Amino acid sequence: MSEQPETPGAATHDPDRPAALLEFMTTGWAVREDPLPEPESAAPYRAARRAALAQHFPGERLVVPTGTYQTRANDTEYRFRPATEFAHLAGSHEPDAVLVLDPDGSAVLYQAPVMDRSTPAFFTDRVYGELWVGPRPSLEATSARLGLEARPLEELDKLSGPARVVRGYDPRVEALFETDEEADAELTTFLSELRLVKDEHEIAQLQQAVDATISGFEDVVRQLDRAQETSERWMEGVFGLRARVEGNDVGYGSICAAGAHACTLHWTDNDGPVRDGDLVLLDMGVEGYELYTADVTRTLPVSGTYTPCQREVYSLVLDAQEAALAACRPGADFLDPHRAAMKVLAEGLERLGVLPDAHAALAEDAQLYRRYTLHGVSHMLGLDVHDCAHARQEVYRKGTLQPGYVLTVEPGLYFQPDDETVPAELRGIGVRIEDDVVITEDGCRNLSAALPRDPDAIEQWMARLRSSHA
Length: 470
Ligand SMILES: [Mn+2]
Description:
Blueprint: H1 19-25, H2 43-56, E1 62-65, E2 71-73, E3 76-77, H3 84-89, E4 98-101, E5 107-111, H4 121-124, H5 130-133, H6 139-146, E6 149-152, E7 164-165, H7 171-176, H8 181-194, H9 200-222, H10 224-229, H11 232-246, E8 249-250, E9 255-258, E10 279-284, E11 286-287, E12 296-301, H12 308-326, H13 336-351, H14 358-362, H15 370-373, E13 406-409, E14 412-414, E15 430-432, E16 435-439, E17 444-446, H16 455-469
Parallel strand pairs: 1-7, 5-6
Antiparallel strand pairs: 1-4, 2-3, 4-5, 8-11, 9-10, 10-12, 13-16, 14-15, 16-17
Helix pairs in contact: 9-11, 12-13
Bound molecules: manganese (II) ion.
Manganese (II) ion binds near residues 379 and 408.
């Protein structure tokens, strides 16, 4: 018995396969009739993006790989998630695919072959074989669905010469072409900036992701009792169920932080107790089927009622968020909502007895309030939770807001449990309120407005959900 897998894609523990079996397995199957799928509604929007890309780099070959499976352990992989740049331009969810824009501007999608019953690989290859992973779309089906010419992946190997490649996803593709690091970075930057303004299809996708997220928050509130009996993990699990049923997955690791865990910005262990009388900070987002993600935070009283102290901190963060939302309009600096929120928070911190002098704390060369506010108020949102990350500073962080931008508005206050600069009764309280807004012609529209923010409205909403569940 050989110690190595006998066929590519097979595992060490797979039994040997005699030739007679391979022959037998590939014969005797009924012919399948697979009607071609309808074109996706996103297809014309993606075609427009590809046209904009070709126009920006005329006469050049542009290569956008989607990447491949990432190993979780030994021969098990994480679920495949297409590269963001590729998803934006092509829309296929097939691993290993590569979008190429030829110098004449025409687009071709190169896709791995299907391993169907015409080849023994259909039952020997556990990563791509149809028997193991189910049927994968043919070139014809992919072409019909995406409105894009599709060719076998092996034909990509015939290409060579100069090209710009989106790096970081597929080293094999990067090695195929003559590339230049700086030129490739320009391509990635352009694609990040191309995603700054969302088209109507993308905004509808983001709204769907937000709506599913709101349902997920409702699920968690209905099951808060179970979380109290177990741990924060119950909330993560309940939200994850909604994300998998109404979307592709969660858009990022859910933060389910009870009590002082809320003061840890990226608390994703989610293994702590959920106690009556504590707050629970929930930062969660469903990633939809087309991979656009929501990013929403609410800070809820486990008991269903805020204590006076919790309510005071909560209301201050809410006031800061209202100030930030009012600053979200076209032409405003990207940082204006942040500045508006920080002013409100710093002045509130003085009232709470945390900062002796808000004005002094706000000074550019001091910024002492940041010990308690910790992070910026906004980031772009889209296919990536921190979208457009490769955009140039002058069009993003130091740029101005434009109609069609989608961003988060998420001020917070965090009083670490052992912070001696904070009055004792405030220590261990962390509050963040986060909504997703689209910049309109004259202001902004809150995509997550249907999820209560006002503390009274939250208490009523929680009471309604928990009584209907009982
Ligand atoms: Mn966020």
